[in-house]
Amino acid sequence: MSGPADPRKGEVRADCSERRILFLQGPLSPLFRMTGNHLRKFGCQVFRINFCAGDWMQWHGKECTSFKGSPRDWPDFIEDYLAVHGITDLVLHGDQRIYHRIAVEKALPLDIQIAVTELGALRPGWMTLERDGLSTLSRFPADPDAVRAVADRAGDVDLEPRFPSSFWLQTAPDVAYNLTNVFLKLLYPNYVRHTIYPPIEEYLRGASRLLREKRRTAEADRKIEALRQTGCSYFVLPIQLEGDFQLRRHSPYQSFSQVLEIVFRSFSESAPEDAHLVLKSHPLDVGFEDWSGVSNALALKYGLSARMHYFDGGGLSKPLEAAAGVVTLNSTAGLEALQAQVPVKTLVPAHYDMEGLTHQGDLSGFWNDPHRPDPLLLNAYIRALAATTQIRGSIHNREGVFVAAWNIADRIAKRELNPLGAFVEPPPRLEKARKLGVPL
Question: Matching Pfam families, A to Z (predicted)?
Answer without folding.
Answer: Capsule_synth
